[in-house]
Amino acid sequence: MLVLVWLAGIARADKPDDFVEIGKAIPDAVIDMRYATADNFVGEVLYPVARCKLRRAVVERLVRAAKALRAKDRRLLVWDCYRPSSIQVIL
To answer: Which of 25, 27, 64, 86 has its CA 20 to 30 A from that of 78?
Structure first.
């Protein structure tokens, strides 16, 4: 599905590889960003903000999964998200 967004007078197409914040797409998702706290195997905060971003194509599928879970009175739980290469080097 191709979506056009009008941004600052310029039309652009959203791409499947764009990063999307999952909390905005699935507000009732439980997001556990351990690396934004010291409660992880490294024992220190690695992310300055507990923000979960995933590729648009992945989020679109998770939106459908979250809907199916809601029908069974359940919620989606996400443990980790996009990890920048600078954090990958630390880990």
So the answer is: 86
